[in-house]
Structures are given as structure tokens and as C-alpha cells.
Amino acid sequence: MSTMFVLGMRLLMLGQLFAFEKISEDIGRKIQPKLTYFKCLSVLFPVSLWLAYGLTNNSFKVMPQVGMLLIYPVFLVGPKIIMHQIGSENSYLEKGRFSYFKTYYAYLFAIVFVIGVLGAINIGLTKIT
Q1: N vs C: which end of the chain shows fewer Cβ within 10 Å?
Q2: Is residue 119's pLDDT more than 60?
Q3: For residues 48 and 75, what is the distance between their CA atoms, to the nearest angstrom?
Q4: How far apart are CA 52 and CA 44, in angstroms?
Q5: 100 and 9 Cβ atoms separated by less than 8 Å
Q6: C-alpha 38: how far from its chain's center?
Q7: How far is it, in rounded angstroms, from Cα 45 to Cα 37?
Q8: What string of DSSP letters covers 5-27?
Q9: Is 11 exposed, middle or buried (0-12, 13-18, 19+ CB in 10 A)?
């Protein structure tokens, strides 16, 4: 859950950067978004989640977590699509410039790949000793 949340915050930060890049092009001067909210939540939520699991029940169900991890981009992009349908054409500024789905699954694949490599190294080291 913490990985999913941190990935979501990272994607929302990147989406904001692309949207503000488009706004900067439109108005002709450089402006930057304030990303403090996303950065703080990316640290505070996982730490509080880990503390909550550590202080209460230390068992959890894996399959609901995996299912949510795989469909999470729908919840990131869904509100943006709905707002674009009922809002103005400027409500979806990162459209065509940034893909939440591709970026999310690329990050997720990178995490799984690194964990797999570390697992292979661990197996190799245990066979040596």
C-alpha cells in the first residue's frame, strides 16, 4: 500500500509539472508548481502506515493489496477524465504529454525488477556460504 501511495504521489507530481509546463508555454513566462504537499505525503503516509501495522496487528492480506496496486492508476486518472468531460478544455493540461498508466506500470516494473535482482543475489550468496 505504501508503494502504491508513493507511486501515486510521484505520478501526480509529474502530472503537475507537465501541466505547469503547458501553462508556462501558454502565458509566455516560466511558473513552477508548489510540490511540498506531494513530497510530505510521500513520506508521512508510508511511515504512519508502517507504524500502524507495527503497533497493531502485524498480519495483513496480500491479495487485496496486489489487486489495488494493479488497478490504482484508474483511481488516479478517473477524476481527471470526469473533470475533463464536464469542465473546460484546459482541465486536462497534461493530456497527450504525460501518461499516468505507462509511467505507473514502468515504475512498478522497475520495483519488481530490482526486488528480483536483489532476491537472485541473495540466493547466490546463500549458496556460496
Answers
A1: C
A2: yes
A3: 22
A4: 12
A5: no
A6: 10
A7: 12
A8: HHHHHHHHHHHHHHHHHHHHHHH
A9: buried
- With contact defined as beta carbons under 8 Å apart, do 77 and 100 qualify? yes
Amino acid at 77: V
User: Among candidates 9, 14, 63, which has minimal Cα distance to 37?
Assistant: 9
CA distance 118 to 111: 11
- Listed in sequence order, the residues at least 6 apart from 14 whose beta carbon sits closer than 8 Å to its beta carbon are 98, 103
Q: What's the grid cell of residue 126?
A: 546463500
pTM more than 0.85:
no
Provide the pLDDT confidence category of residue 6 given band limits of 50, 70 and 90: confident
Task: Give me the helices (H) in the chain, please.
Answer: 2-27, 36-55, 62-86, 100-128
